[in-house]
Amino acid sequence: MTDAPVIGVLALQGDVREHLVALAAADAAAGPVRRPEELAEVDGLVIPGGESTTISKLAVLFGLMEPLRARVREGMPVYGTCAGMIMLADKILDPRSGQETVGGIDMIVRRNAFGRQNESFEAAVDVKGVPGEPVEGVFIRAPWVESVGAAAEVLAEHDGHVVAVRQGNALATSFHPELTGDHRVHRLFTDMVRAYRRGDSL
Question: How confident is the model over 118-165, as pLDDT tens digits?
Fold first, then answer.
């Protein structure tokens, strides 16, 4: 596929394999990213779920945090799910000691807002930009967005809370679409990466 965008999945922790499968199903050339030189080769990046504090510390340890921030500032498309949403927030409520974010979306995120692991749930979510029926959202120790700035667009809400946001080339969801077999959100992101490669304006 000559038009297949190269999309990496940050492979420090979390459900990396599931994202690789979903991206491949959305016609992307997908591979894991663990080092700065691998980050330099991709057109876009997915930051998966996991534990946001651990991902933050490992990104610093592996020398990825500053190059990732630079690429996001330059406009590289990035998609964060669950902990990845936290990583893309400009601000976290009650961050753990030493926790850093990549930033890129003018939003304030509350960690574990929907409850603990044993309070995980699934819910149908209408996501703006995803055609067809609602997306089945899997919420696992999920965050929600407390507030967004003027530049950020709310794409979805659940139970009165913002659970999907886009700002320019940055996309974030509280939930895990990679766990459902429904690849429409990944296709939305893949289309964002294609537009970026073509140089289309947002």
Answer: 678 999 999 999 999 999 999 998 999 999 999 999 999 999 999 999
Q: Which of 18, 19, 158, 176 is catalytic?
A: 176
Annotated catalytic residue: which of 82, 158, 183, 186? Answer: 82
Among 18, 19, 158, 178, the one annotated catalytic = 178
What is the pTM for the complete model shown?
0.94
Distances (CA, A) of 19 to 10, 23, 96, 189: 10, 6, 26, 12
Does 119 participate in catalysis according to the annotation?
no
Tokens of 185: 């959100």
Q: Is 82 a catalytic residue?
A: yes
